[in-house]
Predict the structure.
Amino acid sequence: MELEYCPFCKIAQTYHPGNSSVPSKPDPEVIHPNCFLILNTDLVMAFLDIMPISQGHVLVIPRRHREKIKDVKGREGAALGIWLPVISRSVMRALGRSEGDWNIVQNNGAAAAQVVPHAHYHIIPRGGGVAAEVKARSFTMFGASTRSDLDESEAEVLASKIRKEVERDLEFMEKDDEEGRKMLGKL
């Protein structure tokens, strides 16, 4: 069930899955606001957040409308689980920070800070070193951050870099990750 008012459903309805999970050169302007697509499968999509917390902030969603993670079906959940590490690695490599840190965040419901009522994961790259105040605390949840509008000229370049890194990751899976390859084939 897609919802007419859901911006993520609008993206899913606009970009149909193709022959490849990684679209070669999707047109960001076929939808408003523009969408910088990274991954487009039958079950999962990924794209740059239009209000990023940091450069490379990506959203990973089930293609079908699922309001909360509890609503995600088995195959969709498995596909999300396969794609989250692939997209995470790809984002960090595209930023030149393959050894860097990032958050993967998933909120459920308005009281939990879910703004768009369509289940989604945030991949949020974090800065280089660990700040002294973070080291002094026993843990930090998400760190202090502000959101800003996506710079669309930078977004096009970054989305292209991330797509190339996803393709690179998939090539590695073809050669060296038999279990991952089998899982992708089933999803």
Q: What stands out?
A: The first helix runs from residue 7 to 14.
